[in-house]
Amino acid sequence: MDAQGRGRADNIDPADQWVLNPNTGEYELQLPDSAPQSTVPRPRRSAPRGGTPRGRTAAPGRQPQDAPGREIPAQRRRRSAPAEPPPGRRGRRPAQKASKAKKVVLWTGGVMAFVLVAAAGAGYLYIRHLNDNIKSVADDGASTGGFQKDKAINILLIGTDKRTGAGNDSYGDAGSPGHADTTILLHVSKDRSNATALSIPRDMIVDIPDCPTTQEDGSKEVIPGSQGVRFNTSLGQSGRTPSCTMRTVTELTGVKPDNFMVADFNAVKTLTTAVGGVEVCVERAVKDEDSKLDLPAGTSVVEGEDALAFVRTRHSFGNESDLDRIKVQQQFLSSLMRKLKSNDTLTSPSKMLKLAEAGTEALTVDSQLDSIGKLKDLGLELGKLNTKNLTFTTVPVVDNPAETVKATVVPHPTQASEVFEAIQNDVSFTDVKQQKAKEKAEVAARLKGTKADPSEVRVQILNGGAPDGSAQDALNWLQLEEGVSKSENAGNADAELSKTTLEYAPDQADQARRLADIMGLSGSAMKPGESVTNSQGLPTMTLTLGKDFKGAGVSLTAPTKAPDVRKTTADKVVCAE
Predict the structure, then answer these.
(1) What distances in angstroms separate CA 211 from CA 72, 215, 458, one per listed residue?
(2) Around 525, how many Cα atoms within 13 Å sit in the side-chain half-sphere?
(3) CB atoms near residue 384 (< 10 Å)
């Protein structure tokens, strides 16, 4: 939107032409004398995608659930410019009523959610123009098919060390194809009450699986996997695309991301400049020769090149390791989120427009998230978060025991899996009330009461996402080890489940409690419902083994409390040490 190009006077900020209509709660474009207000239309929402789970055949009449998404080569889309608004009379700037202002804060909630997601969430201001900024690449079937509003959300955020963009020649590794230099798995709870941002160390040793890719020229290529290599090589190395990083994270954590976003060095520079700088704190003065960071002790405001230098500095903090740099980056992101959420940002059309431009220009997203409409919907979901309930933590690690000179790390043998399980089970790392007291009491009550003798428990077992053969393994264990003789293998379920469930009729509650006790099922896994008829024509319960099933005899009790690991929350001001 060029002010001069529309016949207006010099020195007019295009952002000042957008004003709030208190009757609609939307920003509208006001032009002097030559044009009327023009309300920006809201984009249509995309319908969820479908497909068939890997290794399963869709049941008759059932819509497939897990097909690979539409693949788009890594190239910018070109669309026609927005149409000029018709001529008319200039309107007066309306006063902002409290109730409508609150609505605008809700609509722009995306800008406080999480850096790039946040900035992109502001994009409803001029949708068609911003759509042209977005670059998308195929997810190659590595995602869930995209986030859903009624489920927990998992977004993979990747910062690369590729030297793209003006002024970045001196950063990163020379000739780097763009490795996964900074990676965060952002998990947002199903009820949107809390979120966890899990940093994945770039020097952590992992196994990278085989990954089908769509290359920049549109060709398809399967990149062979690698065993025992640094995590950062999951991107860029040997032609690996972001979908390879997504598959590596899934194999490492057991959490399948819904979407990914990739940003280069320019993202930090442009976003911090757009909001007028971000406040950072250091315990002692820093003068780093490598990053050129020069800060006095205490609090400073950084933007542009200084902001990038702050997040890339490693030799001036802690023991100069990448793990200490991760702590600094988490502190920086917390501060940036506080600035994005502040009234100083949300009530400034100028900053909002700059954020929308910066965020969409800096983003490379997956093909399931390739429009402002989708980014806005995601931003609104994330915008429901309170920063005090966003926890930053890092995969717990130990030094690589295979090295004499310690240069890499490996996941902690016990703590890492505890963190992964907490995220898998949507457990908050902050003290958030995740269920109403009444709901919690009802769930707990399912486990209380008399329990039938194991020999009286009738149950059919279905495999709904567990490894092949799990239903038969569970059957053998229940019959031979636990005395549940009235049990049978009913084959595969019609659909995959993330968690194991036990459905039973009201008059089977005592049987359900016994089976829950044997298998270590929680109250939330017990689903009061209806019985089915077994092969002998008798009413029986249905046990469906989900993806959380770890083997016959292994308790299925999910964690209810996050492990005690180092963490910070986004509302806290922390100084880099």
Answers:
(1) 16, 12, 43
(2) 30
(3) 15
Least Cα distance to 575 among 282, 279, 277, 278 occurs for 282
| Phi-psi region at 276: left, alpha or beta (left = phi > 0; alpha = psi -120 to 50) | left
- The CA-CA-CA angle for residues 442, 499, 553, to 5°, reads 100
Q: Both tokens of residue 564?
A: 């005690």
Burial of 522 (0-12, 13-18, 19+ CB in 10 A): buried
Buried (b) or exposed (e) across 332-343, using 16+ Cβ within 10 A?
bbbbbbbbbbee
Distance CA 117, CA 103 (A): 19
SS3 575: coil
| DSSP H or E stretch at residue 378 | helix 372-382
Element (H, E) at 519: helix 509-519
| Cβ-contact 182, 204 below 8 angstroms | no
Neighbours of 548 (CB within 10 A): 19
Distance CA 209, CA 186 (A): 21
Task: Give SS3 for 128.
Answer: helix
The model's pTM is 0.61
Question: Which residues partner with 267 through β-bridges?
Answer: none
Judge whether residue 530 has pLDDT over 50.
yes
Q: Which two tokens stand for residue 53?
A: 């789970």
Position with higher pLDDT, 405 vs 110: 405
To 5 degrees, how large is the angle CA 67–CA 68–CA 69?
A: 115
Angle of helix 349-362 relative to helix 265-274, nearest 10 degrees? 180
Residue of 380, 155, 352, 113 lying closest to 262 (CA atoms)? 155
Using the predicted structure, report yes or no on whether residue 158 has a pLDDT greater than 70: yes
C-beta of residue 58 within 8 angstroms of C-beta of residue 203 = no
Q: Let me know: does 147 contact 378? Beta carbons within 8 Å.
A: yes
Question: Could you tell me the pLDDT band of residue 316, with boundaries at 50, 70 and 90?
Answer: confident
State the residue for tokens 């009461």: 449
Rounded Cα distance between 572 and 529, Å, is: 45
Burial (0-12, 13-18, 19+ Cβ within 10 Å), 222 = exposed
Residue 461 three-state SS: strand
Asked if residue 119 lies in contact with residue 355, where contact means CB atoms within 8 angstroms, the answer is yes
SS (H, E, C) 307-370: HHHHHHCCCCCCCCCHHHHHHHHHHHHHHHHHHHHCHHHHCCHHHHHHHHHHHHHHCEEECCCC
